[in-house]
Structure formats: C-alpha cells, structure tokens
Design a protein that fits this description.
The protein is elongated. The longest helix has 28 residues. The model has no long low-confidence stretch (mean pLDDT about 85). The chain is an all-alpha fold and about 80 residues long. Helix 2 packs across helix 3. The chain contains 3 helices and no strands.
C-alpha cells in the first residue's frame, strides 16, 4: 500500500472513528464537526474511486476533523478530572 492509499485510509478511519466514538460515548458531535467528518469520508471515497476532489475541501475537512477530535478528547479529560 502506497503513501497515497495509506493517507486516504487514515482520513476515512479518523472520520469514522470520531463518528462512531461519539455514539459509543453517548456524546453528540457539534454539527460543524459532524459535517466535517462526513465530508472527510466523502473525499476519501472519491480519492479511492479515482474521482475528482478539491484540495480546498480536503483542507477544510481536515481542520474540522482535527477540531472535532480535539473537542471529543477534551470532553473525556474534563470528565475524568471531575470524577
């Protein structure tokens, strides 16, 4: 598997795990973070199929995905400290 394929797989996996993790934890994602995760998965599918995709949309999806992961992790940290 080449770097391009690994990156696409990692993008899809990060978005998928953020979405499923929020369900598992019973914590709803912020609407913007949810949209970013869905967009990241859509872009990953386009890349896998060899379809056109926009670097700008990828950049925004990555930023949103990173923001969502950070918020999700921070919520766990706060819960642990407050326990």
């Amino acid at each position: 598997m080449g770097d391009h394929e690994k990156s696409t797989y990692a993008l899809d996996a990060a978005a998928t795990h953020l979405m499923y993790g929020s369900v598992w934890a019973g914590r709803e994602l912020d609407q913007n973070d949810s949209v970013s995760a869905k967009e990241a998965r859509a872009i990953a599918r386009r890349v896998k199929r060899g379809e056109k995709w926009s670097p700008g949309r990828l950049r925004e999806a990555l930023k949103g995905l990173g923001r969502g992961i950070k918020k999700f992790g921070t919520g766990f940290k706060q819960a642990k400290e407050g326990s």
